[in-house]
Specification:
By secondary structure, this protein is of the alpha/beta class. It has a single domain, classed as YbaK protein. Helices cover 26% and strands 28% of the residues. The chain has five helices and ten strands, in the order αβαβββαβαβββαββ. Strands 1, 2, 3, 5, 6, 7, 8 and 9 form an eight-stranded mixed β-sheet that branches. It is globular and about 40 Å long.
Length: 156
């Protein structure tokens, strides 16, 4: 497996991780990646690109089997409103293709919100910087290198 910006970032920051490649399916999301890797979808964390009312971008890291309650997210982050970015806008902010968006080594530094319950997992899987690549790591390392704001905005 070749290195990505995200895996180089993890190496540089001393994060122990294992890389897991799978056959990417467009629009398959965490349901497909978790099935292909044989892991619980709850442990696969999706990286979502949101923007606030001033169009300032930020990332939301959420369990694969949950959705974001946008009103709760706005309230907890002190914004009037928030919404997901369009795919082309998300790519412009992160430098990653949708389906391969990693929270590590984004094109420009972005604030990160992390669903609080992710920190309770023994390990998590998150995009490694390209479509068809997840990295497994300890949630404590994710918190250490990203310094996220913890939020409670998950909906089934």
């Amino acid at each position: 497996m070749s290195q990505t910006k995200a895996t180089r970032f993890l190496d540089t920051h001393g994060v122990r991780f294992s890389a897991h490649a799978y056959d990417y399916e467009p629009h398959g999301g965490t349901r497909v990646s978790s099935q292909k890797l044989g892991v619980d979808e709850h442990t696969v964390i999706k990286t979502l690109v949101f923007e606030d009312e001033a169009k300032a971008p930020f990332l939301v890291l959420m369990h694969g089997d949950r959705t974001v309650q946008v009103q709760a997210l706005a309230r907890q982050t002190g914004h009037k409103s928030v919404r997901p970015c369009a795919p082309d806008v998300a790519q412009r902010h992160t430098g990653y293709l949708v389906g391969g968006t990693s929270p590590f080594a984004t094109k420009k530094p972005l604030p990160v919100c992390l669903e609080r319950t992710v920190t309770l997992l023994p390990a998590l899987f998150i995009n490694g910087g390209q479509r068809g690549l997840l990295v497994q790591l300890d949630p404590a390392d994710l918190v250490r290198v990203l310094a996220p704001t913890l939020v409670d905005c998950a909906a089934p």
